[in-house]
Amino acid sequence: MIGGEGLIPPSDSEPSRKLRVALVSSSYNYIRDGVALTLNRLVEYLERQGVEVLVFAPVAPTPAFAHKGTIVPVPSIALPMRPEYRLALGLPRALRKRLREFDPDIIHIAVPDLLGYCALRFALKRNVPVVASYHTRYETYLKHYWFSGMTRPVTAYLHYFYGACRELYVPSASMAEALVTGGQRNNIRLWPRGVDAVHFNPAKRSDSWRGKYGIGPDELVILFVGRLVREKQLHTLTAVFRELSAAGIAHRSLIVGDGPDGDTLKRQLPDGVFTGAIFGEELATAYASSDIFLFPSDTETFGNVTLEAMASGLPAVCADATGSRSLVDVGVTGFLEKPGSTADFVKPLRLLAADAELRRRMGSAARLRSLSFTWDAAMALLLGYYTALAKSVPVRAADTRT
How does strand 52-57 pair with strand 20-24? Predict the structure, then answer.
């Protein structure tokens, strides 16, 4: 960690003001993904604590949900190949002026894209403490979109970007370990996620909900929740369900979510139950009305859906990869299997399918483990990091540029 050299504490004679945080992200309210939902929770929490927050982010004509806080819209275009996401076009002069006038104590960057890079340069030039949160393993996505040759330069850029920040907030110990082992500068602080264990609760199991989708009360339901995109290892998901059917393991595959690969998945799993994207009470009911959670993705930094499934009382069978590795206690709350290996995933699923008592015991243990992850504790931890940085203020260079 960076020490305190060259920093001066604020004078006792200076008037106090509320902490000001500028949050810069390419995902905030135009799509309902894990990054956007986490950042909205953060802004809501910070404002409850009296922190002034200004969000710089792209917007769409129709937002996906009612956002928290104040957004300064950033110019953007639909992302080629993934038009549901938007590509921010940097930080124009007028927005740099708005950011400078806000005079933030902390600049928090959530995405290391062009917008994030411009915000990083802004902060470094003006000696504003800049931090980043790590949400997405971008380098692991490349192999799924025919850009494997870009892995090394992208990784080098990410090391530079995150290394230039005062602190890097990582959601799981397994992700932090992978970053340091891969050569990332160790300016890392742990910022885990939370789960609403009242909302996601085994008590919400519903035979009537199952019946709405043609699922009988005694049928075994294996659940997947997530964006229907190839980086979620959908080819493994398909192969596992097919192998279970070929082996005569009675089950219903329940797929919750949508995305550009949804139609392909439906063709490959004609007997699957597809709910599309669902939220709120229906999502909580879907979790609780299932029996096993299956999540083969190996690109997660944390795995919010895995934690939601655990809170709902489900044993989890996940890829042995970052994120899940910090959540699933092997043999106690579920199993971790080799990413991409159909046979490895099928083995514990067959075991769980045949043993209702094992499912019950692991589901109870999963629920208990989930209770140690609360959103308020996670957000309070991050606010503590902010406060510690703001107490030692870098000497600001006189600079009237915008």
Answer: parallel
CA distances from 44 to 38, 62, 72, 105, 303 (A): 10, 21, 16, 18, 21
Provide the angle, in degrees to the nearest 10, between the axes of the packed helices 304-311 and 356-370: 110
Fold of 7-194+375-394: Rossmann fold (3.40.50)
Give pLDDT, residue 84: 84
Closest to 1 measured CA to CA, from 389, 390, 402: 389
Q: Where are the beta strands (DSSP E) in 320-363?
A: 334-337
CATH number for 202-370: choose from 3.30.1300.10, 3.40.50.620, 3.40.50.2000, 1.10.340.30: 3.40.50.2000
Angstrom CA distances, 248 to 251, 253, 291, 353, 392, stand at 9, 14, 18, 11, 64
Q: What does the pLDDT read at residue 12? A: 46
Which tens digit of pLDDT belongs to each residue from 90-132? Answer: 999 999 999 999 999 999 999 999 999 999 999 999 999 999 9
User: Is residue 3 predicted with pLDDT exceeding 70?
Assistant: no
Residue 172 burial (CB count, 10 A): 23
